[in-house]
Amino acid sequence: MREKKQMYINQRLRDLYICFSHFCQKIRSGVMTMGIFSKEESSGRKESRRSLQSKGSSDYSEDFESAVSRDNKEGTDQQDTNSMETITCSSCKKEIAAELMRKELSVCPECGAHNKISAKRRIRSLVDPGTFRKLKCPVPVVDPLGYPDYKNKIHDLQDKTGLDEAVLIGMGEIEGRKAMIGVMGSEFLMASMGIAVGEKITHAFEIADKYKLPFIIFTASGGARMQEGILSLMQMAKTSAAAQRFGEHGGLYVVALTHPTTGGVSASFAMLGDITLAEPGALIGFAGPRVIEQTIGQKLPAGFQRAEFQEDHGFVDQIVPRGEMRETLSQILRLHEKRRWSL
Amino acid sequence: MIREIDERIQDIDKEIEAESSKESDYAADLKIKELKSERKKLLKQCNHPTPADKVYLARHKNRPKVDDYINALFDDFFVQRGDALGKEDKSILGGIATFHGLPVTVLGHRKGRNINENMEYNFGMPEPQGYRKAMRMMKQAEKFDRPIITFIDTPGAYPGLEAEENGQANAIAKNLAEMSALKVPVIAIVTGEGSSGGALAIGVANSVYMLENAVYSVLSPEGFASILWKDSSRSAEACDLMKLTAQDLKRFHVIDGIIPEPLGGAHHNPQKVYRELDNMLMSELTKYKKMSANELARNRYDKFRNMGAAIIAQEQK
Ligand SMILES: [Zn+2]
Prior knowledge:
The structure holds 2 protein chains of 2 kinds. By secondary structure, chain A is α/β, with parallel strands linked by helices. Chain A contains 13 helices and 10 strands.
């Protein structure tokens, strides 16, 4: 009786071992990196991975534009750096050589202040060259309130920034690991969230889920976009619901809070990350400092609502300087690569 | 406009009360009769409130409050307090009750009806603990398979020092996310003013209703005017522009239905409003009874997933 039991256990252990070594092999052969499961998936997984199996994990063209190594808009960026031009640091007000400022990703070499960086430059600072593929998600300019001159303003901003809305999202690789990456561009109407931003972020969660990609988003926003009224408010629920569903399906969601992340964006998808990072000195909070001061009738203490304050209060895992962000994200992706317990 | 009429009506009510308390004589009776007919005439002028009128009515101090709705619509109310994380927030009132015998979880913003109560309940402006308390009640409702009914009436989440320290943004975000996935029916009713994320944080529901004169907006008209025009005194203009009435929101597919109010606002005949709400809740709950837990969550997800879809489709045409 005891022998039989022992034999049975041995048999099960052997099965497990075979299973396990097969799994390791897959990882080694690169089939299972990034949590993208291969076509030879076990039947139990079939259901949830159906979309992948039918498309094949290498073909993304249905949902992403093809990679463009050098973007047209980059030419304009380049111009600033050629001459002897200087840029004034927003914090210490010192004149810094534009070229140095660019090299430092707009982090002031004098005081360390993290000055604004455009969405496109941010993406370039993060992904492996030539790997960024923009998410396909065209949204027309909408104007639910009939707000005076609103549509014109948006069209102008589109021309000026080269962005179609206040968030730029696509798939890119960070040290060889694929991820959905979104960057909110404060150059586009304070990166406020209207219908288009809500739609793009929600769609990004859904597509990241479809391809089992981690989703990394750099937030910056004044909040919900007033000019689109109640439908802007509803984007908070829409994006939060998408984040929730993505999480329930096991997706890794990383938020990097940048200056400033406030209002309806802070109170929705920006606060729902599995991992939450922040740039030094970033203002992060629900209510704006001025509103709080008016409400309580007193001055706010120094450093209130800054990234360091949020870290002290338990809402931020790590504060990461811009120059180290790519490395930190790479580490996070690496740590989530293998999804099973193994020796 | 309605403000002046309403204030006159309040004066008349006081005069009528004063006259009635006197010893009845012919002159007094005549006076009361006159006052009543004037009141009637005034009330009739309230039939087409402007958006600014509605903002006034939505904030009216005599408008039914969350405890009125709970008393009128439910039995056996058991109040629940605290977020179980160290804090209690009186600006949210909630607990377990029964609706025609069916156990439900009910909760809503509590404003209070006089200045002392206003202060005690922070004018219905929750801090993070309020939202966390609400979520605790809602997760419990899910555990025990109770439908959830929420009453929205808030000027917004409280913009205070401690509220920020304690994670106001985090608390609201968590509510939005977790409410979207609840496996029990959720019905939300905007009874007064629903402003900003502070309102939405208990409003991610399968069905969202608004009282006829309630308003629901991305932020208060005063805030809107002060942010966009740096001039909070232009709030009446903001009211017209913001499309914050129940009728506007129905057109945007943000809400599912409108609860009619008596002339002059809900406070003129609360019983009528309670009856309408009772009917609505009965039919909604009957509808959701047929749905499985997963269907309920999916139904709610799809509802909010499509916020803005109609206007995008319209633009693409
Ligand atoms: Zn500096």
